[in-house]
Design a protein that fits this description.
The structure holds two protein chains of two kinds. Chain A is an all-alpha fold. Chain A contains 13 helices and no strands. Chain A has one domain: Orthogonal Bundle (MetI-like fold). Helix content of chain A is about 75%, strand content about 0%. In chain A, helix 4 runs parallel beside helix 7, helix 7 packs antiparallel against helix 9 and helix 8 packs across helix 9. Chain B is of the alpha/beta class. Chain B has a single domain, classed as P-loop containing nucleotide triphosphate hydrolases (Rossmann fold), CATH 3.40.50. Chain B is built from ten helices and twelve strands. In chain B, the strands form two sheets. Chain B has an eight-stranded mixed sheet, with helices on both faces. In chain B, strand 9 and strand 10 form a beta hairpin. In chain B, helix 3 crosses helix 4 and helix 3 runs parallel beside helix 5. Chain B is globular. The chains are: A mainly alpha, B alpha/beta.
Chain lengths: ~325, ~325
């Protein structure tokens, strides 16, 4: 256009199928909340991967003479009731929290979505059997069910993840089934069937993508719950075993000292908040970018800042 | 004779069970959406299928392609019994016999690009394998229906109703079918766009030698595009004939009433002509009247009507009607 400094328009995509993922990613990162979320998650992953190198001290270096120190130069996040460095424990707890979140939710996502898809799409006895099974799981209070699962499998972080995964499976099954029931009746599903598409193709290419938005939202909500559930399980001694740190454990342990030493609970709590917030923002961003209609609106909006900048120059 | 008939339905029935409320959900009755239809669609012709809403014409269109499972009777497609087809045979049928749907806003997956939608039959049937070959076939199809090949990467919401219907037509034609059921394909379009789509369908028929079943409640449009017309009432075909002949000289009282409801584009003529106005409502398809199903609203109902279910009989050259006024022929046993 008129501004010579503007970079040339990107070349027309010859094979749009290939460039779409990259374009989607670029669009996702162009929205500030999503960018923030991605950066935070990357940071947490890096911290979790290199926790030993990053943490100033080991996770269990007790120094009773240095106990309950407020945040300061020596200990940025202070020390806990045993004189352990809270910063180090937060860093070392990242791995557990991240793992519990992703593995547990990943499990319930895969199993629950599959069950919901089949139940919603086929109906009849498949629906009855699968959903009654889910109802049985759902009837137990979440923590009680997780405790029961751990009672069978034995305590430990891995088993806690499985237990949490099982606990949240019915939620995904129900959310997916509800969405599938709506999509199943759409004309475009019948249209695909009328040209000979198989059930598997209908489910994966048409029903699942259109049922995705509530599933994405449920995923980001569940990630948050999973991190907290791990805390609860650890609190009753069934999750991460002491003295190994996890954010949830530190939060519940620090609760008793909240009047005396707020930093013991607040910093792991903050870490949970930031992680959960990042998951939620990413979920929202993904949902928008994956919806073609929203996407067109986003792409149109992206050109607006440029126009504003030119207007300012003129002024 | 058999040779020039592409699709033949014999005593085709589609009944939907009516279940009681409550836990048992016992079957207490049936809605007879299609109730004993005999119909032939000849190669290369356009057969218009008209009738008021709820008469079962869409269900009939779906049942011919076995998109709805028939309860009884048979459908032959090119000599093969569709109702007895195995899964692979049915899949092969889905390439040769396709449907264009009514609502172009609902019949395209909003999350698939136009290219993906049009390419679906190609992928399903393994036609034009390879991404490049498929893309060029998609481009060809889009141009065939009057769209630019570059729209393949765009999403349905970026298009108007008429354009979307063109995409739907391109998808239907992707597998080079012989038979296309247009299920109210123009009903939800603007009038100006309707004409464009009708002309497109006609051009494609000439170009590709297609056979159409044109399902519509719009008698004027059907008259315009069809070679022959079949009139449906309450799950049964009551009259079939060449389009102009049937329009000029309808033999079944229902067809007469239907035609007299079509406005004439001349105020003088419109005032002068006699109109047959039907009394009452269409009976429920769950409680079809005995004998002739039209007798409850027929101005000419007489003795045999409540007892004998009329069969289609010849009433003119290539024209058949199911009415006792043309001689009592009740080969069908009376259905309750």
């Amino acid at each position: 256009m008129s501004a010579p400094a503007r970079p040339a328009a990107p070349p027309v995509r010859v094979r749009p199928e290939r460039g779409r993922w990259r374009a989607t990613l670029r669009l996702l990162l162009s929205s500030p909340p999503s960018l923030f979320a991605v950066l935070v998650l990357l940071a947490v992953v890096v911290v979790a991967l290199f926790d030993e190198q990053i943490a100033p001290t080991g996770f269990n270096e007790v120094d009773v003479s240095d106990r309950l120190q407020p945040p300061g130069a020596g200990h940025w996040f202070g020390t806990d009731d045993l004189g352990r460095d809270v910063l180090s424990r937060v860093v070392l707890g990242a791995k557990v929290s991240l793992q519990v979140g992703t593995v547990a939710v990943g499990f319930s996502l895969v199993v629950g979505v599959l069950a919901g898809l089949l139940a919603g799409f086929y109906g009849r006895w498949i629906d009855a059997v699968l959903m009654r099974l889910m109802d049985v799981l759902f009837a137990f209070p979440a923590i009680l069910l997780a405790i029961a699962v751990i009672a069978v499998l034995g305590p430990g972080t891995t088993n806690a993840m499985i237990a949490i995964g099982i606990t949240y499976t019915p939620v995904f099954a129900r959310v997916t089934r509800a969405a599938v029931l709506g999509v199943r009746e759409q004309v475009f599903v019948r249209a695909s069937r009328s040209v000979g598409a198989s059930d598997a193709r209908l489910l994966l290419r048409h029903v699942l993508p259109n049922a995705l938005p509530p599933i994405i939202v449920q995923t980001s909500v569940s990630l948050a719950f999973a991190v907290l559930a791990e805390a609860a399980l650890s609190f009753v001694g069934l999750g991460t075993q002491p003295p190994a740190p996890s954010w949830g454990r530190m939060l519940s342990e620090g609760r008793g000292y909240i009047d005396l030493a707020w930093w013991i609970a607040v910093f792991p709590g903050l870490a949970i908040v930031v992680l959960v917030l990042a998951f939620n923002l990413l979920g929202d961003g993904l949902r928008d970018v994956l919806d073609p209609q929203q996407r067109s609106a986003l792409e149109a909006a992206r050109h607006r800042p440029g126009r504003r900048r030119r207007a300012e120059v003129r002024r | 004779m058999t040779d020039d008939v592409l699709v033949r339905a014999r005593d085709l029935q589609v009944h939907f069970p009516v279940r009681s409320k409550g836990l048992r959900r016992k079957v207490v009755g049936a809605v007879r959406a299609v109730d004993g239809v005999d119909l032939e669609v000849r190669r290369g012709e356009t057969l218009g299928l008209v009738g008021e809403s709820g008469c079962g014409k869409s269900t009939l269109g779906n049942a011919l392609l076995r998109l709805v499972e028939p309860t009884g009777g048979t459908v032959e497609f090119d000599g093969a019994d569709v109702t007895a087809m195995s899964r692979p045979a049915l899949r092969a049928l889905r390439r040769r016999a396709v449907m264009v749907f009514q609502d172009p806003y609902a019949s395209l997956d909003p999350r698939a690009t136009v290219g993906q939608t049009v390419a679906e039959p190609l992928q399903v049937h393994g036609l034009h394998p390879g991404a490049r070959a498929r893309a060029s076939r998609v481009a060809e199809l889009l141009e065939l229906v009057g769209l630019d090949a570059s729209v393949a990467s765009r999403y349905p919401h970026e298009f108007s109703g008429g354009q979307r219907q063109r995409v739907g037509i391109a998808r239907a034609l992707a597998g080079e079918p012989d038979f296309v059921v247009c299920d109210e394909a123009i009903a939800s379009l603007d009038v100006s766009v309707q004409a464009q789509v009708l002309n497109l369908l006609r051009r494609l028929q000439d170009q590709l030698g297609l056979t159409y079943l044109f399902v519509s409640h719009d008698l004027a449009a059907v008259r315009h595009v069809s070679d022959r017309i079949a009139v449906m009432y309450l799950g049964r075909v009551v009259e079939v004939g060449p389009a102009e002949q049937l329009a000029a000289d309808p033999q079944h009282p229902y067809t007469q009433a239907l035609l007299s409801a079509v406005p004439v584009p001349s105020p003088a003529l419109e005032r002068a002509r006699r109109r047959t106005v039907l009394a009452g409502d269409v009976p429920s398809a769950a409680a079809v009247p005995s004998g002739c199903r039209f007798r409850t609203r027929c101005p000419h109902a007489f003795d045999p009507c409540p007892d004998v279910d009329p069969a289609l009989q010849a009433v003119g050259a290539g024209q058949t009607a199911a009415c006792h006024l043309h001689g009592v022929v009740g080969s069908r046993e009376a259905r309750v």
